[in-house]
Amino acid sequence: MGQYYQTESVIHKLDPRVKLVATICFIISLFVVDSWVGYVVAAVFLAVMIKLSKVPFRFMVKGMKAIVMILMITVVFNLFLTPGEPLVTFWKLTITKEGLRIAVMMAVRLSFLIVGSSLMTLTTTPNSLTDGMEKLMNPLKYVKVPVHEVAMMMSIALRFIPILLEETDKIMKAQIARGADFESGNLIKKAKAMVPLLVPLFISAFRRANDLAMAMEARCYRGGEHRTKMKPLQYHAADRIAYLVLLVYFSGCVALRIYL
Description:
This protein is mostly helical. The chain contains eleven helices and two strands, in the order H-H-H-H-H-E-E-H-H-H-H-H-H. A two-stranded antiparallel ribbon has the order 1-2.
């Protein structure tokens, strides 16, 4: 998650503002629809966007590893704690028809949400993402919101996600090579075993943050006021078509919610 996949595609060439608005609308649409027909429409829309992006689906699914535990917890809680018509009962636990339906729908919703969000970061460079965020949030300047600084912080956070994941993997492999064991033992022992991993990871993160701050300071970075853009954002014909397609999709989701 948070990585940029370099390739030539229709989605890569779109204005970052279009992709930001599309991602927000897609996430909202997942909570608007409440029927299987709506999820099928969302799945088709997402599949078409993935195909147009030319990003390998296997590469995209790798980002799902980070939410597997959250996904499992959500499914289990909805499966066993939702009242309704009993389907299976063992010991004090009961799986209901309503619980099964909600659990499956929540799993599908979360999966689509993560894949749809990662599609934006995979097809948009951090710099373009920052420019798009700043441009969309421009009206907030009138209420004294530091738009440029907020956009920059969000962009840096997105950029650091894959770096920290890679750093974690390197440190874990180095610790395992020195005899560290992260798997065996109870929960307390596993938590203690994580200390040799977390300490160097935090030190590395602070060092990278300090290096970034020094680099920005050395280049006389001074925030958003009176800054110009080397590549100003401009809408093209493809962006207008993308907005039209998005409007049709979102209107369809709302219609499915009303009439189904």
